[in-house]
Amino acid sequence: MMKRSLIWTTSLLLVVFAITSCIPFPKVKTYRAWVVGQTDTNGIAMLYFSDDSGKTWTRQAMDILPEGKSLEDVLSVDQNRVWACGSDGLLMKTVNGGSDWEIIEVSETATDSFFAFLSIFEDRIWVSGDSGLVIFSEDNGDSWTVCDLPENAADYLIQGIHAINQNVIYAVGNKSTPRAGIVLKSENGGQNWDEIDLPNNYNDNGWIGVKATDENHIVIYGGQGHYAVTANGGKQWVTGGPLFPKDLNSLVMMDGSTYWAACDFDTIILTENSGISWEEQPSAGTSNSFLLGIDALDRNNALVVGSSAGYPQFGKILRTTDGGNNWEVVLSAEECPVTLSHVSIAEKSM
């Protein structure tokens, strides 16, 4: 009886010690997310919001979105500050997680331009678009500067831009006729731009996006499974692919060697060795989709958004909590009869 009592007392003391001591328990990360897309039957663009790590979705900004303008990209700075851009010079921001959105006026610098992509480093906001357009703001959108790109850039949709820091910015684009791709780099904050000639005639491929973790590790990706990687700031580029005759539409870098990509025809791929090899992950939901956007909180939690590859139109949102071993539909094609284009995740502070 004494022995059993001693064991019980010891166990109770251990529990009390664990509760009252400074043993760290891992916090469960949660996130907010935003998804953008085309216009509904009333002409209002889709701007979806999730406050519960992608489980459920509601629409935002329906009261201020202008009729007939789509949203193409969304980028969260943190859980409260978010930017979105789209067609006909549409640019908007929120500073309170989307409870209120504000339209940003850019008509003086980019009237009716198609805005394709956003990048933000500290206080500088970058926007890229059609006809070789790259603009930036240093005062939270009050005024804008148009970058002077090389003359031939005007033929391209600058579909991807990434500001690595205040000085180094990459921009990539595509057009339907040869030479289909262009890669541009600025090393002085956008004052001057140089065109990068990738090896193996890789600029014959149209480029959709560019991502980086630092000045050394950069990935350019795009048409028909082609990509290019550098680990030394562009001194050498390693060309990859073609993986398949599908576009790599969106890519998120978890670190210098691990990246996820969303591709045409329901294809989600992951590399953990800088693109030397890729693992294809099982997609979910209505098939015959172009997966156009991907973002991740960490190596386990990510979201993918999709668009119908033809008619009828639909969109879908997929979610994983186990590194992509399983993807689940959190917004189905039946719930969203409109194509969706991009997604952004922001970790919620505890």
Give a description of the structure:
5% of the residues lie in helices and 41% in strands. It is mainly beta and 350 residues long. The strands form 7 sheets. It has a 4-stranded antiparallel sheet with strand order 3-2-1-28, with no helix packed on it. The protein has a 4-stranded antiparallel sheet with strand order 4-5-6-7, with no helix packed on it. The protein is globular, with a radius of gyration of 22 Å.
Outline the low-pLDDT stretches: 1-21
In total, the number of strands is 28
Any idea what the CATH superfamily is called? Answer: YVTN repeat-like/Quinoprotein amine dehydrogenase
| Percentage of residues in DSSP E strands | 35-45%
Overall form:
globular
Q: How would you sum up the major sheet?
A: 4 strands, antiparallel
Distance between the termini: 46 Å
Strand order of the largest sheet: 3-2-1-28
CATH architecture descriptor text: 7 Propeller
Category by helix and strand content: mainly beta
Based on CA atoms alone, the radius of gyration comes out at 22 Å
Count up the helices. 1
| Element string (H = helix, E = strand) | HEEEEEEEEEEEEEEEEEEEEEEEEEEEE
Provide the domain count. Answer: 1
What is shown here, in short?
The protein has 350 residues and is mainly beta. The chain has one domain: 7 Propeller (Methylamine Dehydrogenase, Chain H).
Question: How do the helices and strands line up, and which of them pair or pack?
Answer:
Elements: H1 2-20, E1 31-39, E2 45-50, E3 58-59, E4 71-76, E5 82-86, E6 91-94, E7 102-103, E8 115-121, E9 124-129, E10 133-137, E11 145-146, E12 157-163, E13 169-174, E14 181-186, E15 194-195, E16 207-212, E17 218-222, E18 227-230, E19 238-240, E20 248-253, E21 259-263, E22 267-271, E23 279-281, E24 289-296, E25 302-308, E26 315-320, E27 328-331, E28 340-347
Antiparallel strand pairs: 1-2, 1-28, 2-3, 4-5, 5-6, 6-7, 8-9, 9-10, 10-11, 12-13, 13-14, 14-15, 16-17, 17-18, 18-19, 20-21, 21-22, 22-23, 24-25, 25-26, 26-27
